[in-house]
Amino acid sequence: MAHTQSASLTAVRPGRHRLRAVDPNEVVDFSQVADFLPPGATLLPAPQHALPVLPGRPPMVGYLVLVPADQQPHLPVAVPSPVTAPVAAEERGPVTIDDVQRIAVVDGEPLDLTYLEFELLAHLVAHPHRVHTRDQLVTTVWGYGHVGDGRTVDVHVARLRRKLGAEHRHTIQTVRRVGYKYTP
C-alpha cells in the first residue's frame, strides 16, 4: 500500500497534531512538512546550542515555526486548572514562594535573592522530591539559549544553600552525578 508520508499522517488522526518520531538516519522531505504549516509560516532549524541535552539520549533536532503576527496560530490552549486551597506551609516545607510578589520566605523571613536564584528555588520548590539534572535546570531556569554548563547550577545552588541558612540548607539535596532535588 503506497502512499505519501503526509497523507498517512493526516489520515491517522485528522484534526490533531501531526507529529511523529523520525529515525536518526531518515532524510526528511521539507516539502511535505510545509503542507502542515499555516499560510505564511516559515520553518527554521533551531540552533544546536538551543536544544536540551538529555543524558544517555541521542542529540535532539528542533525547528522553529515563525507565524506572521496577524495570524492566529491553531495551537492548543492551556486551560488553567481550578483554583484549589493553598497548601499549608508545613506541607511545603520551610520555604514559601510567592510568584506574584517574587518573594521567597523561610521561617517568616524573606530571602534576598537574585532573579536567577529566585527562579531556581521556585522551580525546585514547585517540584519537591523530583530529581533534576543540571542540564534540565539550565534549560528550564536559564533558558534554551544559555551558553554554560552544569557548574553554573552548582554555583547558584551553593548560594541558595548559604541564603537558606544552616537549619534549612539540607532541603536542597545533591544527587551525585545527576543533579539536585528539593526535599521539604
Structure write-up:
The chain is an alpha+beta fold and 184 residues long. The chain is built from 6 helices and 8 strands. It has helices at 5-12, 30-34, 89-92, 115-126, 134-142, 150-164; strands at residues 42-45, 63-66, 95-98, 103-106, 109-110, 132-133, 172-175, 179-182. A hairpin with a 4-residue loop joins β3 (95-98) and β4 (103-106). α4 (115-126) packs across α5 (134-142), α4 (115-126) packs across α6 and α5 packs across α6 (150-164). The chain is elongated, with a radius of gyration of 22 Å. Mean pLDDT is 74; it is low at 1-18, 76-81 and 83-91.
Notable traits:
184 residues, 15% strand, single chain, three-stranded antiparallel beta sheet, disordered N terminus, 29% helix, elongated, alpha+beta, 8 strands
Query: Helicity range of the residues?
Result: 25-40%
Going across the biggest sheet, name each strand in turn: 3-4-5
Please tally the β strands and state the result: 8
Number of helices: 6
Q: Radius of gyration, rounded? A: 22 Å
Main sheet specs: 3 strands, antiparallel
Roughly what is the average pLDDT, rounded to an integer?
A: 74
What kind of oligomer do you see? single chain
